[in-house]
Write a structure and sequence with these properties.
single chain; 368 residues; alpha/beta; Rossmann fold; 2 domains; 8-stranded mixed β-sheet; 4-stranded antiparallel β-sheet; 28% helix; elongated
């Protein structure tokens, strides 16, 4: 399903727009059941590093060396994954969804646990990095992507997917599952007083912008159990969503609080909404004839000009072999089970063919 649900009332017990300090599993277990709309998780990678990595000039590569990424083997990591995903599922609303990002070190183990716990995988999205770290040893392919799993709480969930917003964001083309986005660098990368990265795996805001815009509505609650330096919270705040962050590292928490303090939400809430065609007023094709936007006898053609049909006074079409609605005739001439006549049939404008949907848009504008 690809339904956009309405944002529901938030429980007063929720610690909205706050960072909860402590263990993510304990903190999630303290929250009310079915209380959050979206969970974004960037869990430890469990990189299993065996030593330092150096560049050809012998300078050390700043990797993930923190204690939070170290586990006593796969079994320990799997137990941790099962525990936090179980806690996440309890607090996720019936129609909520979860996004989790990872590398080849952990994403397959996370994916298996998601399915074991009854989550329903909707997409795996590939983050293609335009500026990946080179493979300095020259013994493997350059690791230039990470994987994201988007899932609903169950197979029957009516999860939010703002299709039109994603299509608009992608130059009016359907958003694909490969997202080409650079690593977090420049002014967006948080540094400490010594000029070092505050967090080794800070994600670019562009990724969170797509996730939050696609999977939530204004006023929804976004929870991040591995809050880090607060990328999810900053983007949620900009987009008029509520956030709950969970983090135990004091340095990350301090950086996140400073970041959130200087983050400003979009001033006009109307700028956040992408009109849904499903919510637009219904416009029968016959209205175009009544208003004189098309005349009885006008010839409509398919985009490839292979098929044509004439407009009848009652708002139906007639071709050489078929007659009926714009959808019925469009399907019949193609010998197809169905057809969207609004995009299939076109009219002539100074030698160029334009889908009749442009005329429907014109009528809808008059109705507003």
């Amino acid at each position: 399903m690809m339904n956009t649900k309405q944002s529901s009332n938030k429980s007063p017990q929720l610690p909205l727009n706050r960072i909860l300090v402590g263990d993510c599993i304990e903190q999630m277990n303290s929250l009310p059941a079915e209380s959050v709309d979206l969970i974004f998780a960037d869990p430890p990678y469990n990189l299993q590093l065996s030593g330092d990595l150096h560049r050809p000039n012998n300078t050390k590569v700043e990797g993930v060396e923190e204690d939070w990424d170290k586990f006593d083997g796969f079994a320990a990591y799997d137990r941790f994954t099962h525990s936090w995903l179980t806690a996440a599922k309890r607090i996720l609303k019936k129609d909520g969804s979860l996004w989790v990002i990872g590398s080849y070190h952990n994403i397959y183990r996370v994916g298996a646990t998601l399915q074991d716990l009854g989550y329903w995988i909707l997409n795996d999205v590939i983050w293609v990095k335009t500026n990946p770290m080179p493979n300095f040893r020259g013994k493997r392919f350059t690791n230039a992507h990470e994987s994201m799993i988007w899932c609903s709480k169950s197979k029957d969930a009516r999860y939010t997917f703002n299709y039109e917003a994603m299509k608009a964001l992608n130059d009016d083309l359907q958003m694909r599952s490969d997202w080409v986005i650079p690593l977090c660098t420049g002014h967006e990368r948080l540094k400490n007083g010594d000029g070092q990265k505050v967090h080794p795996t800070q994600k670019p805001e562009a990724i969170l912008h797509r996730i939050i815009l696609s999977s939530t509505n204004a006023g929804d609650v976004v929870l991040d159990p591995f809050f880090g330096t607060g990328t999810s919270g900053a983007v949620a705040k900009k987009l008029h969503r509520n956030f709950i962050g969970i983090e135990r590292d004091e340095a990350y928490i301090a950086a996140a609080k400073a970041r959130l303090a200087r983050t400003r939400p979009v001033e006009e809430g109307s700028l956040l909404e992408t009109p849904s065609k499903r919510k637009e007023p219904r416009v029968p094709f016959g209205w175009l004839v009544e208003r004189g936007l098309l005349n009885t006898g006008d010839v409509l053609t398919s985009p490839c000009r292979k098929w044509s049909a004439k407009v009848r006074a009652d708002g139906t079409l007639i071709s050489s072999d078929h007659q009926g609605s714009i959808h019925q005739v469009g399907a019949a001439v193609q010998n197809a089970p169905s057809c969207n006549g609004w995009s299939f049939w076109c009219y002539n404008v100074e030698g160029k063919i334009v889908p009749i949907d442009a005329l429907r848009t014109q009528v809808r504008a008059e109705l507003h």
